[in-house]
Amino acid sequence: MALIQHFDPPEHDPINVYLTGEELEQLLDYWVPRLGLQAWKINLKITRAPDLPQDHIQGAATWLASRRAATVHLLDPRDHRTEEPRLWYDMETTLVHELLHVVFAEWTDRSRSDIEGDGTVHSVCVEQPIDQISEALVALRRATETKKNRMGVRS
Ligand SMILES: [Zn+2]
Hints:
- The chain is an alpha+beta fold.
- The protein is 44% helix and 15% strand.
- The protein has one domain (20-148).
- The protein has five helices and four strands; from the N terminus they run βαβββαααα.
- The protein has a four-stranded mixed beta sheet with strand order 1-3-4-2, with helices on one face.
- The longest helix has 31 residues, at 120-150.
- The mean pLDDT is 85.
- The structure holds zinc ion.
- Zinc ion (ZN) is lined by residues 1-2, 97, 101, 127, 130.
């Protein structure tokens, strides 16, 4: 799951990126093959805060690895509290974060007993690296888009 600003924000000034269901479906089509998840059936849901599995999270992923089926929940932007500047929310980065959990689904299932407990190991060994990778991937995609646009190429 993507905790709300659990770690330091990335180097650039964080901004909120709110996306529509349609935009998110397009980004899902972009990211699924790039993350090697084509064999999975991934259901994307924009979910109100009380319906997420925990408080103060921006996303969650659930899966049944044996069926290659996953659901990615993204916090409904209406429930994103903007009064706290540190609580930035970039829906694409959260989408990629949750998809990376699906990439690690098999590993997570097999090491479930290790990551229960107080959650520290899970936070340090899973959440933090996934945050770093998802932020890097989204920054890379956006930089590529900007470069293409500058060159007058339509994406
Ligand atoms: Zn997570």
